[in-house]
Structure formats: structure tokens, C-alpha cells
Amino acid sequence: VRPLSMALVMLWTSAATCFADNPVVRNTYTADPAAMVYNHMVYLYTGHDEASATGTGYVMRDWKVYSSTDMVNWTDRGTPLAVSAFSWAKGDAWAGQVIERNGKFYWYICAEHKTIPGKAIGVAVSDSPTGPFRDALGRALITNDMTKFSGISWDDIDPSVMIDDNGQAYLYWGNTALMYVKLNSDMISYSGSINNVPLTQASFGPTQFTEAPWIHKRNGLYYLSYASGWPEAISYSTSTSPTGPWTYRGVIMAPTGTSGTNHQSIIEFKGQPYFIYHNGALPTGGDYRRSVAIEKFNYNADGTIPTLEQTST
Ligand code: FUB
Predict the structure, then answer these.
(1) pLDDT tens readout for residues 79-100
(2) pTM for this predicted structure
(3) Whose CA is nearest to atom 1 of ligand 1?
């Protein structure tokens, strides 16, 4: 791993450029990567860990975005969204995801609600993938008093969105309990009830859903990957329908060893699948100072995802 001090020197000589080696961003701590392919470009939306080296909790105030045309050279596109953009939120810029629909970009985020105890999910909108983004609703889309599946106040986290081929959009999210709802085509409202997703696991423990759902579709099959157990592995299930039933398929990545959490996105860019995740591998990194990393992979012939090792340089 390239020492942070050396990375900082390189940053000063090469203003907005990040590096190809894992972790891919070395001048700041980034977490919860959500990648979006749009117009021959990959946009990588991340959380931003600002805890001190001895910190014992998350310090997360805003979200960052990077872009690349080759998954090797990354350009820092700034910090286009902060918790302060949401008048209903009071902190904790936790994981989110951006998706495009009809030329608008919707950024689903999680933050701590000011008046309804617990985490909540909001949505910001922009005409550009790099912002500026503004709160689309002026209130949260999902709050803790609407969802009673887990009994905890931080279950309304980690939104992931997919628009199916027929135009129906789905929002998934959760901690301990996994939930989904059908979004309307305006992408900022929903119809029908909030549903709990039963997942079939091979066993309890390391494969059990913890958080960080990510939904993607390939060759007519829906893939639901998620952080499982503790420390978190990344596991996945598949289904022939976005509403299940889901069949457990295995672990994609074992716990990283440097961060208790992991959080993934899975994309295909120029015909190559990528698994994007976080660890604590930078010098003085760890649970609250995480870093985004990327692995290339190929699906097995039967559509399953192989187990992936972390790489670093
Ligand atoms: O970054 C804060 C939280 O840690 C995320 O919401 C979870 O997925 C875990 O990565």
C-alpha cells in the first residue's frame, strides 16, 4: 500500500486525480461506494469518513463523487451533497446511491432525522451526475416510524435503487431487516406498502443479512448482494423476480480484516464486471476511516459470482 504521505504529495502535484491502485482514493477516507454507469463514464459516489485516527464512531457530514472512463484513472469531482442540504436531517451522511431517469439524477441517501428518532432515507435531485444536488422533497421519503420490521432505530439505511426493464423502479434498504417499496415514475414517491424481504440463507451467522443491499439485473436474473454477519462478509442471493423469492448463492467476499463493515456495488462497464467495496487498508485507516477499492471479476458460466480476494498494491 502506498504510504498516505506519498499519496498526499502526489495529490498536490496532480490536483484532482486519484490513483489506479487499491484503495483507489488515497488522499481522503471514502466508504460505501455506489457506482453508476452513465454516458460512457463511471461515476463513483462515496461516503466520506472524517473520524480522527483514534475515533470510535463515524464522523460523516457529506458525500463525494469521482469519475472515470477506464476504471483506472479517477477524477475527484468534489463534494456535491452534504447533510446540511436536508433541512430535516441533523447528521450522519451514511450510504447512498445515485440513479438516472429521464435526464435527472436522483441521489438516495441516509441521515439521522432531526425529529423522528432514528435514521431516515431522503432523496436529492440534479440535472447533472456531478450536481449541484438539492433536496427533492423537503422531507424524508422513509422514516423510522413507518417501518417496524427490525425493532431498531437504524434500520432505515443503505438505500439501493433499480429501474427494471418495464420502467418499474424499486427501492431496497435496511439493517437487520431488509425492505423494499415500489417507487413511482417521479422517483420521489412510492405506491403500495413497504415490504419485508425474507432471505433464505444457508445458515445463520456469517451469511445473515446485516445491511448494504445492492440490486442489479443481468441476463434476466436479479442479484441482491448485501453485507452479512459481523464482521461483514458480502453475500448474495438471486431471483427471477425483483420481489423474490430469493435463493441464497454464497459469499462474494470474506470480511476484509481491516474494517468491520463492508459495502459493495456491482456494475458492468465496457463489458467488464466490477465489484466495488471498502476496507480500512490505508495507513491509519480502520473501522471509521475506510477506503474504496475495486476488483475486476467474471461471472461463472452458470451466472454465479465467484469468491473474490481483496487486492492491494
Ligand atoms: O457508513 C455508515 C454505515 O456503515 C453504512 O450505512 C453501512 O452500510 C456501513 O458501511
Answers:
(1) 999 999 999 999 999 999 999 9
(2) 0.93
(3) 94
